[in-house]
């Protein structure tokens, strides 16, 4: 114990006059360090680093124009009379999260078709309803239409991002606000054309021939067949593998 007490410490305590003269400002030691080797391209979807030679695919034009609705009469009729159904199918095909088409269809029917029906009712009762009330109703409907254009435009933007398509003819939200029904038909034609290119050709199935059997020595008149022990005749069967 005496040896441990008398042992000199390795640490030296500095006096006030021996302290360093430089003052360190708060936060000076917590500054970020710039490492050039860490400056790599990363994927916008998953964040994984990409090689230096990677180049993003260029945006492609749409297969059909915004006003080429007559090229697919089925989607044209559906978009004209039941746009909510066409929108639901587009959402189901554009996204990969297995969203059923009924949910977007119901939302579209409530806000778009319901808003148009409400606007027609307000226009028909223009002389009965107070003008200030009619003005407020119109402002609310215009705001709702703009919000619906943003929602449907997000779906169009996800489709463009999925297939690397250009803005045709302008921003997706603005397209749906101005040409909503034409945009629905164009999106359906685009997905229909691209999905038809990925269809796998059906395989030709060939059924094997039926099982064939050959019995030797069963006929009593066949005396040339070989015999086994005790005079028993051999029985041969042939089956297809």
UniProtKB/TrEMBL annotation:
Q: What is the lineage of its organism?
A: Eukaryota, Viridiplantae, Streptophyta, Embryophyta, Tracheophyta
Q: Which organism is it from?
A: Penstemon smallii
**TM region positions:** none
The protein in question is named Cell number regulator 6
The record's Pfam families line, in alphabetical order, gives: PLAC8
Domain of life, per UniProt, equals Eukaryota
Composition skew (Polar residues), residue ranges? 215-230
Region annotated Disordered sits at 213-236
């Amino acid at each position: 114990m005496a040896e441990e007490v008398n042992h000199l410490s390795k640490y030296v305590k500095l006096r006030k006059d021996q302290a360093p003269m430089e003052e360190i400002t708060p936060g000076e030691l917590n500054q970020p360090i710039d490492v050039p080797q860490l400056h790599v391209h990363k994927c916008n979807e998953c964040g994984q680093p990409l090689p230096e030679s990677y180049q993003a695919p260029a945006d492609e034009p749409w297969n059909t124009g915004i006003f080429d609705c007559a090229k697919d009469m089925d989607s044209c009729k559906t978009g004209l009379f039941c746009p909510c159904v066409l929108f639901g199918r587009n959402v189901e095909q554009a996204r990969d999260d297995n969203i059923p088409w009924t949910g977007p269809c119901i939302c579209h029917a409530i806000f778009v078709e319901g808003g148009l029906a409400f606007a027609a009712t307000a226009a028909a009762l223009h002389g009965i309803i107070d003008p200030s009330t009619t003005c407020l109703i119109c402002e609310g409907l215009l705001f709702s239409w703009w919000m619906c254009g943003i929602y449907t435009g997000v779906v169009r933007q996800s489709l463009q991002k999925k297939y690397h398509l250009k803005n045709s003819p302008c921003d997706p939200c603005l397209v749906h606000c101005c040409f909503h029904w034409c945009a629905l038909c164009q999106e359906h034609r685009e997905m229909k054309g691209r999905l038809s290119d990925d269809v796998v050709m059906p395989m030709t199935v060939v059924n094997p021939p039926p099982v064939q059997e050959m019995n030797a020595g069963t006929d009593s008149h066949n005396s040339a067949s070989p015999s086994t022990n005790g005079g028993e005749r051999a029985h041969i069967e042939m089956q297809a593998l």
